[in-house]
Design goal:
By secondary structure, this protein is of the alpha+beta class. The chain has four helices and nine strands, in the order ββααββαββββαβ. The protein has a seven-stranded antiparallel sheet, sandwiched between helices. A two-stranded antiparallel ribbon has the order 1-9. α1 packs across α2. The longest helix is centred in the first third of the chain and has 17 residues. It is globular and about 50 Å long.
Length: about 190
């Protein structure tokens, strides 16, 4: 099952889990397109920044697991500041499913997550959650995350960020909400 969405291509990168795709025969072709798109939205980007964009894109593909349908990488400001989200599609959840457990699983939390109900016309109902994990990064800052779980008659969609900073969660919250609101089942 495929999921469609709309996103501002200046800030969002669709990360395929494997190549070839419908658009690109190889990862090298895809990386060239990624770099071109990034530089078109940021004409002052340096060669070093574009090299980092290419490395971040390639690294994102390698971090997607076999259960992931696709990834979304968010670039709010510059190439060095990005976060990868994993998008998984599964059969619909049962009506009595514990959505918070389905979304957060075994994530060790420092404090109770901020959870909101969400309705996405093209997928179904669910929740979003912003959370601070019990682990810290290499600088001693708490790891944070954001995620959505939606379930409707055709499928369930789980969107989870990789661990990131609380600053990044603040940057991604509204743009991710906008992308999720456009998601729909394509087939």
């Amino acid at each position: 099952m495929r999921i469609g969405y709309r996103a501002d291509q200046r800030f969002w990168l669709h990360v395929p889990p494997a190549f070839p795709t419908d658009e690109f025969a190889t990862i090298v072709e895809w990386e060239a397109d990624v770099t071109e798109r990034y530089s078109s939205g940021r004409p002052a980007a340096t060669r070093d920044e574009l090299d980092l964009v290419r490395r971040n894109a390639r690294d994102a593909v390698s971090r997607l697991t076999s259960t992931v349908t696709f990834g979304l990488q968010f670039w709010p400001l510059q190439a060095s500041l990005c976060v990868l989200l994993h998008v998984e599609v599964a059969p619909p959840l049962s009506a009595d499913a514990d959505l918070a457990s389905e979304l957060l699983g075994e994530v060790a939390l420092a404090i109770r997550p901020e959870v909101e109900s969400v309705a996405v016309a093209g997928i179904g109902d669910g929740i979003s959650a912003r959370f601070i994990g019990a682990r810290t990064d290499e600088r001693g800052e708490p790891e944070a995350g954001i995620g959505y779980i939606l379930s409707g008659p055709e499928c369930a969609v789980r969107i989870t960020s990789e661990p990131t900073s609380t600053t990044m969660i603040g940057l991604i919250d509204v743009p991710l909400r906008e992308v999720v609101s456009t998601m729909r089942v394509l087939e």
